[in-house]
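pasting DUF1837 domain-containing protein for the record, 280 residues
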Amino acid sequence: MMKYPAPLLKVRVSDFAAEPWLVAMCAGYENGEWREEQLIEHAMEWLPEFSLKYSEWSSLGASNAVKLIRKAAKALYNTEKFKNRGEFGELFLHMILRHVFGTIPAICKMHYKDSRNDTVKGFDCVHVVAKESELELWIGEVKFYKEITSAIRDVVKELHEHTERDYLRDEFVAITNKIDEKWPHSERLKMLLDENTSLDDIFDSVSIPVLLTYDSDAINSHTKVTDDFKAAFEKEVIENWQKFKGKDLPDSINISLILLPLKSKADIQKKLHEELQVWN
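structre below
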């Protein structure tokens, strides 16, 4: 069984009484540098669970580790056309949901790429929170961007498109068809998403976590986690939460906003690409 990676990102700001919820993650600094390399290494630790089916990553061990990690890397990133791709953001959302909210991945979207260079359509993650009496479905949206205003604009548009009745019904069918039969919660999720279940009942058990990245002024103007940095970081993320909250958001489903400010989205994307190329 794959070992659960220790946390690296820190929850620097959170408000679970707000609507929508706000969670802002922080990689921090080390020796005067923002911890970009450490964040990339941490993301790579999550790669097998993110990129492989449950029946594959749950069997990861010493005897098959190299083979499965190589397969995971190829599943995530099998192309040179990387400049505008969002899979890295989906990987970040996966690891944040696992650590902060205790979710469990329901399906592996990377496994279902239709062809080389394809992005996977639909929601950017499909996780669940398994409770004794119910199963919560967490279907995420990601904008792995360098500019927050564009990220907010584009994700709000998708939120409206992806919460329309016909879209949701089609997506629920697609999710159901991709559930690994060996996954422990497969039957419960199929029952929740059955076409005979009212969307009203499903909505009561659905959350949409929205992850937005952006190049952060607060991060770029500091070199250490000080009180000044914490104040600047909090001010920046709350202002961005207010921009998001001020938009016309769908009110039928619970939405939470996760902000991951970066030093440079372009640098992270380039270095993640280079890291994955080693395994390709």
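The radius of gyration is 18 Å.
Confidence is low (pLDDT under 50) at residues 114-120.
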